[in-house]
Amino acid sequence: MALTPNIIIPVDAQNTLQPSKTYALDFDTGEIKGMVDGRKAIEQFIRKAIVTIRFIHPIYTDAYGCEVRNMIGKGFADSFLKSEMKRMVTEALIYDSRVNSVYDFDIKPNGDEIFIEFTADTVEGILEIEEVM
């Protein structure tokens, strides 16, 4: 006689995409303005993840954010800066299951700012991202 009951659980689970509804952030004012889902939520996640400095904010885990801002204005060679930015941005985004890949980077350092453009292949389609850091 077994100590645990013999229970058969029907397999009815499907790989369905979970909603990604979240608060809509206004990056200019810092205010929350409603809710976003789908493509807009992923675009917001990407922007927020790459502008949030990793390891600084205790509200986030060490997996969230990007170290790019720590490199700006430190006198690194442009070639080194570009390769590290590609790696850092990719690492900041790829852990999210909604992001399949990040590629086609165009990085242009300009003094204390860096213009970054890249493509993100997501579950909601291909997104073209532009950001000034």
Point out poorly predicted stretches. Answer: none
Helix content: 10-25%
How many DSSP E strands?
Answer: 5
Q: Give the overall form.
A: elongated
Under the CATH scheme, the architecture is Roll
Query: What's the helix count?
Result: 2
User: What's the CATH class, please?
Assistant: Alpha Beta
Q: Give, in spatial order, the strands making up the sheet with the most strands.
A: 3-4-5
Radius of gyration, rounded? Answer: 19 Å
Oligomer: single chain
| Helix and strand element order | EEHHEEE
Assign the structural class, choosing from mainly alpha, mainly beta, alpha/beta, alpha+beta, or little secondary structure.
alpha+beta
User: Biggest sheet: strands, sense, closure?
Assistant: 3 strands, antiparallel
End-to-end separation in angstroms reads 66 Å
Give the rounded overall mean pLDDT: 86
Notable traits:
single chain, 133 residues, alpha+beta, Nuclear Transport Factor 2, Chain: A, three-stranded antiparallel beta sheet, two-stranded antiparallel ribbon, 2 helices, 5 strands, 23% helix, Sheath_initiator, DUF2634 domain-containing protein
Write the layout of secondary structure elements.
Layout (H helix, E strand, L loop, with lengths): L21 E5 L4 E6 L1 H14 L26 H17 L4 E12 L2 E10 L2 E8 L1
Antiparallel strand pairs: 1-2, 3-4, 4-5
